[in-house]
Amino acid sequence: MEEKMSKTSLMQKYHLKGTPTSGLIMATFGFFIGFAAVSLYGPVASKFKEILGMSGFLLGLLVAAPNLSGSLLRIPFGAWVDKSGGKKPILTLFLLAILGMLGLTILLLLYYPDHLTKDMYWFIVLFGILGGSGIAIFSPGIAQTSYWFPKKKQGIALGVYAGLGNLAPGLLGIFLPIALHSLGLTNSYLIWLGFLLIGTVIYWIFTHDAYYFQLRKKGVDPDEAAKVSKELGQELIPSGSTLESLKISAKVPSTWGLVLLYFTSFGGFLALTVWFPTFWVKSYHYDIRTAGLLMALGFSLLSSLIRVWGGHVSDKFGGERIAIFSYFTVLIGAVLIFFSHAFWIALVGEITIGAGMGVANAAVFKLVPKYVPTATGGAAGWVGGLGAFGGFVVPPILGIFIDHYGNAGYAKGFIVYIILALISIITSFILLKAHSKKKTA
User: Fold this and answer.
1) Which CATH code is given to the segment(s) 241-441?
2) Which of 84, 145, 378, 387 sits between 20 and 30 A of 48, alpha carbons compared?
3) How many CB atoms lie within 10 A of CB 122?
4) At what angle do helices 319-339 and 343-371 cross, to 10 degrees?
5) Where residue 3 falls among pLDDT bands split at 50, 70, 90?
6) What is the per-residue pLDDT across 100-120, written as a single tens digit (0 to 9) for each?
7) Are 197 and 98 in contact (CB under 8 A)?
8) Within 10 Å of residue 171's Cβ, how many Cβ atoms?
9) 138-197 pLDDT, tens per residue?
């Protein structure tokens, strides 16, 4: 009781707000709202393709556009948290996303569908890049959550944060095509803009940074702020060495091996989340609503939920072994789709790839502190940011196969994932062997 009163007195003395639970809820809420932008164009890409007459390459570039900002902004905005807490970086990303959605909505209100021309393609891409800023909330949200919880509880907290937030693209992949059918494209994006605005306001009102950052904003000396924060249960205190951590981790070869692995699994997840809806429309002639359901249930939601189990088995059997198994699973799924001429074979391929990528995502991040223990934060920044960049790089490459083979190119393009899976299996073996030699040395 005395300890509780002591904490209450400290909270009242410094006018501090928030708890670890509320911090987790709001960080997860912010990530969920922003991460939905992964599906900004994917479920409606075929609609834009018909109106603008895009090539396969330009189609791939369009659906990938949100992932450009969503991946690269993760690194600087994640580092920003160490200076100011998570609220300011996340609100900044929200504002950038709102600008993108506002621009897109105004463009559609003025020109869609009869006056939308090919010349407007690059404006749509630009608005997609801005709108995708919300995807980058993952990185500052991870840091924001970590500061609220002691180390022994961070695994559970971060699992809840990443697992629930990752569900957003799959859910949106279901609801956006339904809204498109009922309300039309312009009204659907207008509602999304409202959803983003309301979400931003809720986040702004109810979110509080961890105690250390609140104290620093009130002008409390760093040492005193650290002391008070620790008395209140905050174990993680920023050291201001984020840039140094990035530099140190960049010099560790294993960091770049992990980047490559995450490029395949998480970058691949982002790419296929936006690619599968069009794949089902063009390859098997399903309507947009059915295609969205197939993507969400057979891939995106499955991959997100199985990630939790992937963390468990990685703890039990070792991240390298689970990574090898996972990328072999991705390989099997990609081969099935590449050779498929029947819907059920392609669907099994999609499910297999989704399961493999979800488990692999968990395995890779289990390996980050193992291989870069002296600069784990910096390594996580490189792996999370550059790995997610695969979500921008891969779709235009897949589009090139459509330009060469027509609709048959949607299946043939999965040769890209066959190659990436093979490279990732080899990389995982190399990491395993290197670690084994290090243990026996």
Assistant:
1) 1.20.1250.20
2) 387
3) 13
4) 160
5) very low
6) 999 999 999 999 888 888 889
7) yes
8) 16
9) 888 888 888 888 877 766 777 788 878 888 998 988 888 888 888 888 999 999 999 999
Q: Which of 186-201 are b and which e, b meaning 16 or more Cβ less than 10 Å from the residue's Cβ? A: bebbbebbeebeebbe
Q: Where are the alpha helices (DSSP H) in 85-150?
A: 87-111, 121-131, 138-148
**CATH 1.20.1250.20 intervals, the chain:** 10-239, 241-441
Q: Which of 102, 59, 309 is nearest to 192 (CA)?
A: 102
Q: pTM of the full predicted structure? A: 0.87
Gyration radius of the chain over CA positions: 22
Report how far apart the first and last C-alpha atoms of the chain are (Å, whole number): 52
Whole-number Cα distances in Å, 276 to 157, 170, 354: 30, 11, 11
| Rounded-to-integer distance, Cα 256 and Cα 254, Å | 5
With contact defined as beta carbons under 8 Å apart, do 42 and 278 qualify?
yes
Packing angle, helices 301-317 and 319-339, rounded to 10: 140
